[in-house]
Write a structure and sequence with these properties.
heterodimer; A: 372 residues; alpha/beta; 2 domains; three-stranded antiparallel β-sheet; globular; B: 646 residues; Rossmann fold; seven-stranded mixed β-sheet; 23 helices; 17% strand
């Protein structure tokens, strides 16, 4: 059983250690936590000894072994891409108007399909308003495409899941980053065991992620270079490109990684997951094949969704070449190793006694990741 | 109409000290009275305002105390008798003008009444206004009971006209707000024509221009006037002595302490051993009179409130007359027989006398007040100092607090003087982080708002009430606008000077006498200064919070006007906007998802926690039906239903 504490401990373990990514898991459960411009803050102290805020948080006492066991039926192995049923290439199919997607449009296509066919009755997506990512609960399939582009910033999307559960939606879909998939998995587990807390999360679509950018810092930096109200699209092209590319109504601006890297929240450096291992299906860029996505099917739900969406023309699929998979796995393993070393250095893993950890995983998994 | 205004000559009535002062001014034929509300002084102007309907008297609540002094001085310059009223802070506010006026002198009699608040029962300071008399070189009178509170006003006007300068009268809470028997004198309506004579020579005090120039000449005249006052004080009937001819101990006292001293002597049964010299003319002290009584005995106890003003002045005379009266032993505040803070009371005086005379006396234990309060609270709900049920300030500070927390840059609010000063406490979610004089919050904010170049990256806010806005905020606001200080001013407009009893101010369409007057528009004034102005209803907590967060992102001077009438205002008090009820089946109580937000944090007195049923409830008797708690309830368990208006 994972250790579950209250909001006092959440502040100490996450906020004071600068680990909060602002995923929104603790927002909209109760009146105490709110997210504004990418930052989550507590409005008033809550005195409860155990709360969902702590139970859901992807940065506080996450027992990976227990979590993988509970959600995927197998212990945490530390393999570079997590539990993989199938990897394939995909892009939005003929049933969806093309254009406006970040790369292949697969996520938009899958969510549109899921809403249209009733697999889900609401989808927690991420919109943005003047560059600030904001959660959006979408209930009509035609609206999904409006929120298709990548935001590159941490977003409190999970607050929409909480809100949807409160409003009585019975099969909720979610698109989110690996950290948000950890929180979503903890929501599904419902460790406090109360029926009133049950979150009917039917579909979790994960996004590949190496790191996010701090919303407020990014706005500060961009505001000095361009009129942020005129941004039309942002992209981080695959290597060898070495910059954040911002398209505006007045033309394109490139901001080099050396300027962008300081804007990465420190908490991203303890994340061991690149490919959203706890999702039903994970989607990322297909490096070397523009206009296509990489898709990792991880659960039965995910597999069924991909298969049906392909059959009905919402997505088009293709084989994913073995050499690309090797390359992806190497990147995944590198991220795991880097993050694990940071966790150890910052004393945030497997803490003993009264000391609380951010993450727990078996020692043999640690040894494997560190190639000991 | 009040007996204070209608009572006939020779009648005896039980009246409040402040009413006695007002009656005294009417008997003295005052023509103009001006003041600014402040506890414990407000009832004087309020009483006079009721008498201002017959055309013989003009009364106003001025925008602040300095302006009140100027308004009163103008009447005096034009040959009328004028009264100016304020609490102790007011003398500070007006002292700049008063320093000059004291040099200039006056024509019609001008009296300033300032009511001190020892113990700071209703103040953010325990200031001593007596020192202004010494600093400004003006005569000071202090009534020692309720009859004197009336009678001393007449004497003050006469003295003022005799020496052609302002006379100060100091009262204290226990004299202003307590009541006693007063025998009335006659009120004769005076027909006076106002005209300001200014055609005479520069130095002509009756017909020349009124100014403090030339200063050395005027200063010397001013000091001559003080000497004239002292000569009168030597013979004044307001200085009284009771007790044996050669007492073992002489108590010198003034003001309400006279009453405490009398009681203490009685309590200890030492009337045959202790003499009581009560002084009504406390600055400058009449030296011959003081010398006479000092000569009676070798031991002197000085009883007064707050700092040792009387004590030090008596000691100066004792030093000057030492060759006549010999060495004396003084007891009082300087040697610790009496405390130099807080209110005095009979017990403290009795304790001091018993110690000096070695009489048996068991003083009231130090924690008596606390214990008495505990007993008084038995059966009453356990409550800290709190905003009233339905107070707009609770809703305003809820939104301000939440906006600052969400902004998460460690922003803060500079507070100001009014009911909303309570927001330093949990009832206002501890939102205020500075609290000083009226208007000072905005001046401080104006300064904080310029510190970005030194790395200050915190939203800076100030909160002021509508009356305070006009009283002292405008200069600081103009300063902030002109220097492009990056601040957000929140004006908590509850349509009146609520804390002191709904006196009108320039933002309202009515004056002290109830006449229709033009109301000034706070939002319009702020816009004219160049501020980014927004208006919201504080009861709309979503909009208010959203507006604040938007304003934090705009650089420069922003103003948010939060308009909602005070819950205690006469127009609101009698009717509820909403019927509010808690649906017990939905209330989450202490469950994760709520944890008693309404009764643990919001804490409106209209909400109660039912520990047995583990739900919140509405206290029908206290709830005023503002409906704000329905907006904060996370589960929708608190429901409001609009009450049909007649």
């Amino acid at each position: 059983m994972p250790r579950i504490m209250g909001s006092r401990e959440l502040l100490a373990d996450v906020h004071e250690r600068d680990l909060c990514i602002g995923c929104g898991a603790c927002v909209d459960i109760c009146p105490y936590f709110k997210n504004h411009k990418g930052k989550t803050a507590q409005l008033f102290p809550c005195t409860l000894e155990q709360g969902r805020c702590y139970a859901y948080c992807p940065k506080a006492e996450v027992d990976l072994d227990a979590l993988y066991q509970a959600t995927q039926g197998a212990p945490y192995s530390g393999s570079p891409l997590g539990d993989v049923r199938q990897v394939l290439a995909a892009r939005a199919g003929g049933q969806l108007k093309t254009g406006g997607f970040q790369s292949g449009g697969t996520v938009t296509a899958l969510l549109t399909f899921a809403l249209k066919t009733g697999i889900i009755d609401a989808a927690a997506l991420t919109d943005h308003k003047a560059l600030i990512p904001i959660p959006r609960l979408v209930t009509h399939w035609k609206d999904v495409a409006q929120y298709s582009t990548s935001k590159f910033m941490a977003a409190p999307t999970l607050s929409s899941v909480n809100m949807a559960a409160r409003q009585g939606y019975r099969s909720i879909g979610l698109v989110g980053t690996p950290c948000q998939m950890v929180a979503a998995a903890q929501m599904r587990v419902n460790s406090l065991g109360k029926e009133a807390h049950r979150v009917p999360l039917s579909l979790a679509v994960g996004l590949f992620c190496n790191w996010a950018l701090d919303t407020r810092h990014l706005i500060d930096v961009l505001s000095q270079k361009l009129d942020i109200s005129r941004i039309t699209r942002m992209d981080i092209p695959p290597p060898p490109a070495n910059a954040l590319v911002v398209d505006t109504e007045n033309g394109r601006v490139e901001i080099s990684f050396s300027e962008i890297k300081p804007l990465i929240p420190h908490t991203c450096f303890i994340c061991t997951d690149m490919t959203a291992e706890l999702a039903d299906v994970s989607v990322g860029m297909f490096e070397g094949r523009p206009g296509w996505n990489t898709v990792i099917v991880r659960s039965e739900t995910g597999g069924e969704l991909v298969e049906r969406a392909a059959r009905q023309g919402f997505i088009e699929t293709a084989n994913f070449p073995a050499e690309n998979l090797q390359h992806l796995a190497r990147a995944g393993a590198d991220k795991k190793e880097r993050a694990l070393r940071t966790l150890i250095r910052r004393k945030l893993i497997n803490n003993q006694g009264d000391e609380r950890a951010a993450v727990r995983m078996p020692q043999d998994v640690i040894d494997r990741i560190l190639k000991k | 109409m009040s007996i204070v205004l209608t009572g006939q000559k020779g009648e005896r009535h039980l009246v409040m000290g402040n009413e006695a002062i007002a009656r005294g001014a009417l008997e003295a034929g005052v023509s103009v009275a001006a003041g600014y509300p402040g506890t414990p002084s407000s009832e004087i102007i309020e009483t006079l305002a009721k008498a201002s309907t017959d055309g013989h008297l003009y009364v106003e609540w001025s925008v602040n105390e300095k302006v009140a002094m100027e308004v009163a001085a103008a009447a005096s310059f034009a040959g009328l008798r004028s009264l100016c009223v304020m609490k102790q802070n007011g003398i500070n506010v007006g002292s700049d003008f008063l320093l000059h006026l004291a040099l200039t002198g006056i024509r019609g009699g001008m009296v300033i009444v300032h009511c001190d608040d020892p113990g700071a029962l209703s103040s953010a300071n325990e200031g001593e206004s007596r020192h202004f008399a010494r600093m400004l070189e003006l005569p000071l009178l202090e009534p020692g009971d309720f009859q004197e509170a009336k009678d001393i006003v007449k004497m003050a006007f006469e003295l003022s006209e005799e020496i052609r300068n302002v006379v100060l009268i100091r009262s204290v809470t226990r004299l202003s707000h307590a009541s006693g028997n007063v025998v009335f004198g006659d009120i004769k309506p005076v027909e006076k024509k106002a005209h300001f004579k200014h055609g005479g020579s520069m130095l002509d005090p009756l017909e020349g221009p009124m100014s403090s120039l030339p200063v050395p000449y005027r200063h010397a005249r001013q000091q001559d006037k003080l000497k004239q006052a002292v000569a009168r004080f030597e013979e004044s009937s307001f200085n009284t002595y009771s007790g044996p001819e050669t007492p073992e101990l002489l108590v010198i006292t003034s003001s309400a302490c006279h009453l405490y001293s009398q009681e203490a002597v009685h309590l200890l049964n030492v009337a045959d051993r202790v003499g009581l010299l009560k002084l009504g003319t406390t600055w400058p002290l009449p030296p011959r009179l003081v010398e006479k009584y000092l000569g009676m005995t070798d031991r002197i106890l000085i009883v007064e409130e707050v700092i040792p003003f009387l004590e030090e002045n008596v000691k100066v005379i004792a030093a000057e007359r030492a060759s006549n009266i010999g060495p004396k032993t003084f007891y009082g505040k300087r040697d610790g027989h009496l405390p130099a803070t807080d209110e005095m009371n009979p017990d403290r005086v009795a304790a001091a006398i018993s110690k000096i005379l070695t009489v048996d006396y068991t003083p009231v234990p130090e924690d008596y007040a606390k214990r008495a309060q505990e007993v008084a609270h038995l059966g009453a709900p356990g409550r800290e100092m709190t905003f009233c049920a339905g107070c707009p300030h609770r809703a305003s500070f809820w939104s301000i607090h939440n906006a600052l927390q969400m902004d998460a840059r460690d922003g803060f609010v500079c507070g100001d003087i009014g009911c909303y000063s309570l927001a330093v406490l949990p009832t206002g979610f501890n939102t205020l982080k500075t609290l000083h004089a009226m208007g000072s919050g905005v001046g401080l904010a104006s300064g904080f708002g310029k510190l970005a170049q030194f790395g200050l990256n915190q939203p800076v806010l100030a909160t002021v009430g509508d009356s305070t806005f006009f009283h002292a905020v405008l200069p600081a606001l103009v300063n902030a606008a002109h220097h492009q200080s990056d601040i957000t001013l929140v004006v908590l407009d509850n349509s009146g000077t609520a804390m002191t009893g709904f006196q009108p101010h320039p933002g309202l369409p009515v004056d002290a006498g109830g006449h229709q007057v033009p109301a000034l528009d706070i939002a319009g004034i702020c816009e004219a200064i160049g501020a980014e102005v927004r208006v919201s209803d504080p009861f709309d907590i979503e909009k208010t919070r959203r507006t604040l967060l938007e304003l934090f992102d705009i650089k420069g001077l922003k103003v948010l006007l939060l308009k909602q009438i005070c819950a205690l205002s006469p127009e609101k008090k009698s009717r509820k906007m909403f019927e509010v009820a808690v649906d017990e089946s939905i209330c989450l109580g202490q469950e994760c998802g709520c944890n008693q937000l309404c009764t643990r944090i919001f804490k409106c007195p209209g909400l109660n926690w039912d520990p047995e049923r583990q739900v919140s409830r509405i206290d029908e008797v206290i709830c005023v039906g503002c409906g704000v708690c329905a907006s904060i309830c996370p589960s929708g368990a608190i429901r409001k239903k609009e009450v049909a208006s007649a």
